[in-house]
Amino acid sequence: MVLKDHQSLEDIHTKVITEFSKTLEMFGLTPAEARLFVTIYIHPHPMTLDEMSQALGKSKTSMSTGVRSLIDQGLVNRVWKKGVRKDLFQANKSIYKNFMSSYISKWQTAANEQETNLKKVENQLKNKYREFSSEKQMEEADLLYQKLEQMIGFHENILKSFHKLDLK
Fold first, then answer.
1. For the ranges 8-12, 107-111, 137-141, 155-159, which has the lowest average pLDDT?
2. Residue 46: enclosing H or E segment and its boundaries?
3. Is 97:167 a contact under the CB 8 Å cutoff?
4. Apex CA 164: angle with CA 163 and CA 166, to 5°?
5. What's residue 166's pLDDT?
6. Which residues have C-beta within 8 Å of that of residue 114, sequence separation ≥ 6?
7. CB neighbours (10 Å) of residue 148?
8. Is 35 helix (H, G, I), strand (E, B) or coil?
9. pLDDT (tens digit per residue) in 40-97
10. How many CB atoms lie within 10 A of CB 38?
């Protein structure tokens, strides 16, 4: 497909970045990280921080911070090219696996942490139960205990589901 109007290609390029960025934000990336990733991903060659800065109209410092975050998430790699002194970065090409692995890992960590916190609260409730003197307090505590059990079960199911999806 050949476009006669250079502005039209630029508009489409911007729309690609904007639309795919929205998808990536669902995986927990900030809007800036998502735009940076898409920019690096669609660029035909590894990019320097200066090129990223120019492409997105952001500071080199913010590009460095964003790239570091993307590297930490396993979404971008630093690459070496003979004769080039500046750091070069490229997006990992298997985006489905990388994003799903990163997302699953975040969910597993969060669900595990919340399950642990709920179990601590459950233990506090069990210990406090002995101190209740009225029938009403005991009934309220029993209901709360049942709900806590359901919430803990919810987190256990999340962990099981994401464990089945784990792509590592």
1. 8-12
2. none
3. yes
4. 60
5. 67
6. 155
7. 16
8. helix
9. 999 999 999 999 999 999 999 999 999 999 999 889 999 988 888 889 999 988 888 8
10. 23
- Count of CB atoms situated within 10 Å of the CB of 152: 17
Interatomic CA distance for residues 62 and 41, integer angstroms: 18
Distance CA 119, CA 106 (A): 20
Distance of CA 4 to the CA centre of its chain: 38
Q: What is the pLDDT of residue 167?
A: 63
- Which residues on adjacent β-strands are paired with residue 77? 90
DSSP letter at 19 equals H
Can you give 57-106 as a three-state secondary structure string?
CCCHHHHHHHHHHHHHCCCEEEECCCCCCCCEEEECCCHHHHHHHHHHHH
Which amino acid is residue 17, in one-letter code? I
Three-state DSSP at 11 gives: helix
Residue 102 pLDDT > 70, yes or no? yes
Q: Which of 41, 3, 45 is nearest to 23 (CA)?
A: 41
| The length of the chain, given as a count of residues | 168
Find tokens 């998430």 and name the residue: 73
For the entire predicted model, the pTM comes to 0.69
Among candidates 85, 88, 86, which has minimal Cα distance to 77?
Answer: 88
